[in-house]
Automatic annotation (TrEMBL):
It comes from Dyadobacter sp. 676. GO terms for molecular function: nucleic acid binding. Residues 1-74 form the Integrase catalytic domain. This is Integrase core domain-containing protein. GO terms for biological process: DNA integration. InterPro entries: Integrase_cat-core, RNaseH-like_sf, RNaseH_sf.
Length: 74
């Protein structure tokens, strides 16, 4: 079976919008404000940021925590 990847169609311009917004958030809220000395410090800092981000209440999802939504859906 041959698989062809379609690069045309409705919504293709917005396919990556969510992940691009997420990376913009990481860069603006952590990376640019906390220049690290090496890759390990950067990795550990981003891990802390992601943990904090997922455990805080978000306005866009009714002041709920993303981690709770994920655990309830799983």
């Amino acid at each position: 079976m041959k698989i062809r990847i379609s690069m045309d169609g409705k919504g293709r311009a917005t396919d990556n919008a969510h992940i691009e917004r997420w990376f913009r958030t990481i860069k603006q809220k952590y990376v640019y404000l906390n220049p690290e000395k090496n890759g390990l410090d950067l990795y550990q800092g981003i891990a802390r940021f992601v943990q904090h981000y997922n455990c805080r209440k978000h306005q866009g999802i009714g002041r709920r925590k993303p981690m709770n939504l994920y655990l309830n859906a799983a």
